[in-house]
Structure formats: structure tokens, C-alpha cells
């Protein structure tokens, strides 16, 4: 009987899964929030319709990031792309607020 460590889970693997889970949950929440805010400001609809459409978009963004978090090859790339998209959405939302005022 052979005792093989072929399927042993390493600490690095556990850290990678924990990081991806954190980015999927927290990063997805904040990215969905920023994308929803940007969409609510930018969509040329009545305010009620814009908010409803933005909320639906936010669910799609959250689901996309949650799936992509475990599809992406590198956790570093995942963190960088999530941070850049979040910053871009916030910056564009600030510009949209300035234009609307």
C-alpha cells in the first residue's frame, strides 16, 4: 500500500483560494456598487428606470466577478483588474455627477 502525497493541499493553495474568495465577495460587492452607481447616473432613462436597470447590471457584474475570480489564471491579475475597474467606475461616476450638476 502506497502513501502518496500527490493530492495533498499545500498552504499556498489555501492562501490562493482564500484570496480569490475574498476578491470575489468583497471586490465583487464594491465593483457592483460602483458599476451600478455609474449606470444609474449615465443611463438616459427616467430616474426610477435608471436605478432599476443599474441594479440589474450590478447583479450581473457581481456574478461575473465571482465566476471570473476562479477562472483567472493569476490571483495577482485578478486583484489588479478588479482594482482598476473599480477605480475607473468611480472616476467615471464622479465625471457623470459633475456633468449632471
From TrEMBL:
Keyword match Transmembrane = yes
Name of the protein in its database record = Iron uptake protein
**Alphabetical keyword list:** Membrane, Transmembrane, Transmembrane helix
Q: Which residues cross the membrane?
A: 21-44, 50-70, 77-96
Amino acid at each position: 500500500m502506497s502513501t502518496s502525497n500527490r493530492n495533498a493541499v499545500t498552504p499556498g493553495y489555501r492562501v490562493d483560494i482564500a484570496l480569490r474568495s475574498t476578491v470575489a465577495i468583497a471586490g465583487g460587492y464594491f465593483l457592483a456598487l460602483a458599476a451600478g452607481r455609474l449606470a444609474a447616473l449615465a443611463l438616459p432613462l427616467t430616474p426610477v428606470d435608471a436605478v432599476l436597470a443599474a441594479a440589474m447590471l450590478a447583479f450581473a457584474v457581481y456574478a461575473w466577478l465571482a465566476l471570473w475570480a476562479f477562472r483567472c489564471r493569476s490571483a495577482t491579475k485578478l486583484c489588479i483588474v478588479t482594482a482598476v475597474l473599480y477605480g475607473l467606475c468611480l472616476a467615471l461616476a464622479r465625471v457623470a455627477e459633475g456633468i449632471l450638476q
